[in-house]
UniProtKB/TrEMBL annotation:
NCBIfam families: mutS2. Keywords: ATP-binding, Coiled coil, DNA-binding, Endonuclease, Hydrolase, Nuclease, Nucleotide-binding, RNA-binding, rRNA-binding. Belongs to the DNA mismatch repair MutS family. MutS2 subfamily. This is Endonuclease MutS2. PROSITE patterns: SMR. Residues 554-607 form a coiled coil. The keyword Kinase does not apply.
Length: 793
């Protein structure tokens, strides 16, 4: 399928496999990654892609999969299969931990039945055999050691050994104290020699203590003696230990025999853990490269939308100063072969390699870094001619090696073949290399192959412009700043910009003029035309970008206008409502005043002087009431906002909402940044009123003194371990906002290590948070990359 075989390496697929291997937890999983090869069966590829995509969704949106212990069960099962063999305590403990992991995984998916349909196929009809676990747990403790009560004999022997060791030690201590009292011992305490406890005795006194000499010091001044009376007790302990060891072997042998009938099931469990580890590694890698699952089609075509080269993308993520320009390319029945031209170092080869590498990844069951609206078909063959393959052993020159591949391409390629050719036709005299390349391209086009070809040859560009099935494309170049834009433009060929680049490098004007006279007039016209076309395309692209930007600004202005209009309408209704209420009060007061006046006039029986006085009093009351309603109201506790400016530290009340807060910043455009407790807001100066001293004190007391005590109450550490991604980011956002508000310099975020998923999302969020200047790992001795320090500035 792949020709030549080293094309996999030249396209970068070998590096992709190594990166996926790094994500595996088990050696069996890594071996499975080594066997990854592009497949040609669409249903098989579809199943692999959906399994990886489901695992990616699981890792990013669901609770962690319980994969704490994954050991290689297969070699242990193979060992247990041999009659008479037995597994050690450590080997049984590995099986126990692995089985617990398997059962936890099966329960995990059973609880989510139907949610991960393609992953569930990995362990369909696989039972949970608890009898195996119970048998092992009866023999082993939680640390993987054989229980003392695994059998009655074992318990009895263990107790005898303990008792004999205590008796021997007690007797040895007694002899040691006696020897010390006699002055026989050398400096130091009891020591072990040849596995036996000995007393250090001075060489001149070694005959005074009966026992076995096990060793002497390097100077010969100290002898290490095991007392005779202790020697027999130690021998007894040794014999008991031998008996205990025989009993342990018997227990392990019986347990292995009990396990032997379940060997096929153990092998099935091993296969499940290996496959899950393999798919998990692919999903983790997909998260790293921001990959998605494209639409898999039956046609041999490619439609990549916002595609990126995965290796370049990883480098750009590590080196934040670089970005990867996305690629958009379509290969279908109409445009089968895309002929890419343009300047050197303009991205032609990267474009071609991106198409080839993503096709290899897709057919190997790996998600690709492209928009999920992309669609890709399945190719039976992938042929590539990349780089210099000259061979001394085969006596092939560079051009001969290229021709050898062209022979294979033209002989074996068909409509289900993807060809990738870099610098087509180079390696020999362009006068002959160009026509030969054109003839080969014509033959490949007749076979209706699909592919991407890069070239500088003008005859190939001309051939593609009037041949069905071929389509010119170029890498855009900024000929004013003389730098590539790395954007693929389909439909027009591109210039090599040979003279422009040579001029920028500094080649003398005399040489350039001489070179221009040596090239053909027709070639010069073609190249000039291509440069002009490139310039026109650049202007159109810039104009399109400017129009798009202006449209976006107009949409934002329209939204602001509509918001402002809604705000005015809402306040208008509120003002009218208040005016009507005040009018009702005024009318009620006026009616009461008139009624009282009439009553007084009646009471004085219409006396002229008294009636005149009453009317004067009525007019005076009406004048006062009118003056009170027309004069602007002024709060006893507020200061006119027109009369005074605002400064940091002033306390204000927002007119619209009545909220009170402290000014923490005054901006140049007459806006105020106000702290409302632990929240911040931005308001215009003409929408707030400054508080007097008494009102300010009340406000501070009411809010709780946030401006003076919030820093003392603030705890600059947040622990999000075990939390879901959305909950963790929400919690971090709240603490970050408060830290920014009170001016705290840094924040400690404890997210744990695990698979690194939560750490990645936390750090992606910190990169987007404007007030975070940088972040770094905690010191390795205090948590390493399980803790992130975010610095605020």
């Amino acid at each position: 399928m792949i020709y030549p075989q080293n094309a996999i390496e030249k396209l970068g697929f070998t590096e992709i496999r190594e990166l996926v291997k790094e994500k595996c937890l088990s050696e069996a999983g890594r071996q499975m990654v080594d066997k990854i090869q592009p497949q040609v069966k669409a249903d098989q590829i579809d199943r692999f892609l959906k399994q990886t995509n489901e695992f990616k969704n699981l890792l990013t949106h669901d609770a962690p999969l319980p994969v704490d212990h994954i050991y290689a069960i297969k070699p242990l099962a193979e060992k247990a299969k041999v009659e008479g063999a037995f597994l050690s305590e450590e080997e049984f403990y590995r099986i126990l931990l692995s089985l617990r992991t398997v059962y936890a995984i099966i329960r995990y998916f059973n609880e989510r039945e139907g949610q991960y349909a393609h992953l569930e196929l990995l362990f369909e009809h696989l039972p949970i055999e608890k009898a195996i676990v119970r048998s092992i747990e009866q023999v082993l403790d939680d640390r993987g050691r054989l229980k003392d009560n695994a059998s009655r004999l074992l318990l009895d022997l263990t107790q005898q050994i303990t008792k004999s060791e205590q008796e021997a030690r007690k007797r040895l201590d007694s002899v040691f104290k006696q020897a010390q009292a006699q002055g026989w011992t050398a400096d130091g305490n009891l020591t072990i020699r040849d596995g036996r406890m000995c007393i250090p005795i001075l060489a001149e006194n070694k005959r005074k203590l009966k026992g076995l000499i096990h060793d002497e010091s390097a100077t010969g001044q100290t002898a290490y003696i095991e007392p005779e009376e202790v020697f027999h007790l130690n021998n007894k302990v040794r014999d008991l230990e031998f008996e205990r060891r025989r009993e342990v072997i018997r227990i392990l042998t019986d347990l292995t025999s009990e396990l032997r009938p379940h060997v096929p099931l153990l092998l099935a469990y091993h296969g499940l853990l290996t496959k899950l580890d393999f798919v998990r590694a692919k999903a983790l890698f997909a998260i790293d490269i921001q990959a998605n699952m494209p639409i898999l089609t039956k046609d041999a075509g490619i439609n990549l939308v916002q595609a990126k080269h995965p290796l370049l993308l990883l480098n750009a993520i590590r080196d934040k100063s670089h970005t990867v320009v996305p690629l958009n390319i379509k290969i279908d029945d109409t445009d089968r072969i895309i002929l890419v031209s343009g300047p050197n170092a303009g991205g032609k080869s990267v474009c071609m390699k991106t198409v080839g590498l993503l096709q290899l990844m897709l057919q190997s069951g790996l998600l690709i870094p492209a928009d999920d609206t992309s669609s890709m078909g399945v190719f039976k063959q992938i042929f590539a001619d990349i780089g210099d393959d000259q061979s001394i052993e085969s006596d092939l020159s560079t051009y001969s090696a290229h021709l050898s591949k062209m022979k294979h391409f033209s002989t074996f390629a068909n409509a289900r073949t993807l060809i990738l050719i870099d610098e087509f036709g180079t390696g020999t005299d362009p006068q002959f290399g160009g026509p030969i390349a054109e003839a080969v391209l014509e033959q490949l086009n007749k076979k209706q192959v699909r592919g991407v070809v890069t070239t500088h040859y003008s005859n190939l560009k001309l051939f593609a412009s009037h041949t069905d099935g071929l389509e010119n494309a170029s890498m855009l170049f900024d000929n004013t700043q003389m730098k590539p834009l790395y954007i693929l433009q389909v439909g027009k060929p591109g210039s090599s910009y040979a003279f422009e680049i040579a001029q920028k490098i500094g080649l003398s004007k005399e040489i350039l003029e001489s070179a221009k006279t040596k090239i053909g007039v027709q070639q010069k016209k073609i190249d000039t035309l291509l440069v002009d076309l490139e310039r026109d395309k650049k202007e159109v692209l810039d104009t399109k970008f400017a129009v798009t930007k202006r449209e976006k600004e107009l949409i934002e202005l329209k939204a602001k206008y509509e918001s402002l209009q809604a705000y005015i309408e809402e306040n208008k209704k509120e003002i009218l409502k208040k005016a009507k209420e005040e009018a009702k009060v005024i009318l009620k007061d006026a009616n009461r005043l008139v009624e009282n006046t009439i009553s007084e006039i009646r009471s004085v029986k219409a006396d002229k002087e008294k009636t005149k006085a009453i009317r004067s009093k009525l007019n005076q009351s009406l004048d006062q009431h009118s003056a009170a309603t027309t004069k602007p109201k002024e709060s006893k506790t507020l200061v006119k906002k027109e009369s005074e400016g605002f400064e940091v530290g002033d306390w204000i009340r927002i007119d619209d909402s009545g909220s009170e807060g402290e000014i923490i910043e005054v901006t140049k455009n007459n806006s105020l940044i106000v702290a409302l407790g632990e929240l911040r807001t931005v308001v215009k100066a003409n929408r707030v009123t400054k508080l007097r001293s008494k009102e300010k004190s009340k406000a501070i007391k009411r809010i709780g003194g946030v401006s003076t005590t919030s820093a003392a109450d603030f705890h600059p550490e947040v622990d999000v371990r075990g939390m879901r991604t959305e909950d963790a980011l929400h919690k971090i956002e709240l603490v970050l906002d408060r830290a920014v508000m009170i001016g705290y310099p840094s924040l400690k975020i404890v997210h744990g290590k695990g698979d690194g998923i939560l750490r990645k999302f936390v750090r992606d969020y910190l990169r987007k948070y404007n007030h975070v200047s940088r972040f770094e790992d905690e010191h390795a001795d205090r948590g390493g990359d399980g803790i992130t320090y975010a610095y605020i500035g």
